[in-house]
Each structure stands twice: as structure tokens, then as C-alpha cells.
């Protein structure tokens, strides 16, 4: 069994909201075969507590706009690892240190992932510096 279409859509919406607030290492794990209580985990990291909270706020706001509210929130006071439970999808926003220490991807490595591509920053298709655009370090080419 794989995650429902609704859970996939919710997970992708949450992942994009996190990415829009500069979350790093955003990924979605389909845990539907292993857990009966949810279909997918959205995992996202941030370098500090303030950024974790900003990501959490954006995910909640974006999903609320689609009529989806969390049934539970944990870890908000410390903002080191915040869990947002949307029933079919559980969003984990972790401080980078917690993400490395707990390594949820390793714990769920036998589960498939749901592909996520950040719409705001799609993967480059070519050498933008050679095409007169900006290089990865922000410098413009001489054109």
C-alpha cells in the first residue's frame, strides 16, 4: 500500500511551504506500509530555532489555506524539533543538529520516498554562468 493521493498532495504542499521559508534537506518519506497511523513524513531542517519556528508557521498557514489543520503540535516551545500532525501527514521540522543526531531517514530507509522538487528553486538545467546568468555564488558572467 502506498500513501493516498490526498496524503501525497498534503505532503507536497507542506514540503513546498517549508522550502519557501528556506528549509534545507526537505524530503518526504512514504511510511504507509510501516505505520497504520499516518501515510507520510515530511522532513525539513533549519540552522537555528528562529528558522525552525518560521518554517513551522509557514507550513501551518499554507495548509490552513487549504482547509487542513494540525490535530497536534509538539516541540514548539523549544523549537529544536517541531512535530505537526495532520493525521495522514506528519511534518518534522528539526534543528540541523537534531536532524543529524536522530537521522530519521536512516530509521525509515526501507520506506520509499515521494519525489519533491522545490518549485521556487528548480534544479539547474545548464551552466547559467556561461549563459550570461548568475553563477551559484551569485556572480554574473561578463555578458
TrEMBL record:
Keywords for the protein's UniProt record, in alphabetical order: Cytoplasm, Repressor, Translation regulation
Cellular component, GO, one term: cytoplasm
GO biological process per UniProt: cytosolic ribosome assembly; negative regulation of ribosome biogenesis; negative regulation of translation
Compositionally biased residues, Basic and acidic residues: 134-143
Subcellular localization(s) per the UniProt record: Cytoplasm
Matches recorded under Pfam families: RsfS
Statement: the UniProt record of this protein carries the keyword Repressor: yes
Keyword Cytoplasm carried by entry: yes
GO molecular function terms attached to this record: ribosomal large subunit binding
Complexes and interactors: Interacts with ribosomal protein uL14 (rplN).
Function per UniProt: Functions as a ribosomal silencing factor. Interacts with ribosomal protein uL14 (rplN), blocking formation of intersubunit bridge B8. Prevents association of the 30S and 50S ribosomal subunits and the formation of functional ribosomes, thus repressing translation.
Family of this protein: Belongs to the Iojap/RsfS family.
HAMAP family named in the record: Iojap_RsfS
Protein name as it appears in the record: Ribosomal silencing factor RsfS
Chain's gene name: rsfS
Amino acid at each position: 500500500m502506498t500513501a493516498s493521493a490526498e496524503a501525497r498532495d498534503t505532503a507536497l504542499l507542506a514540503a513546498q511551504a517549508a522550502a519557501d521559508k528556506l528549509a534545507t534537506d526537505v524530503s518526504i518519506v512514504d511510511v504507509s506500509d510501516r505505520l497504520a497511523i499516518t501515510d507520510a513524513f515530511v522532513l525539513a531542517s533549519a540552522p537555528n530555532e528562529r528558522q525552525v519556528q518560521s518554517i513551522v508557521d509557514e507550513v501551518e498557514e499554507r495548509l490552513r489555506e487549504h482547509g487542513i489543520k494540525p490535530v497536534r503540535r509538539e516541540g514548539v516551545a523549544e523549537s529544536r524539533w517541531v512535530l505537526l500532525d495532520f493525521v495522514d501527514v506528519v511534518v518534522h521540522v528539526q534543528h540541523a543538529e537534531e536532524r543529524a543526531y536522530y537521522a530519521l531517514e536512516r530509521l525509515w530507509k526501507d520506506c520509499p520516498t515521494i519525489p519533491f522538487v522545490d518549485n521556487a528553486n528548480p534544479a539547474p538545467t545548464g551552466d547559467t554562468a556561461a549563459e550570461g546568468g548568475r553563477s551559484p555564488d551569485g556572480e554574473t558572467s561578463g555578458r
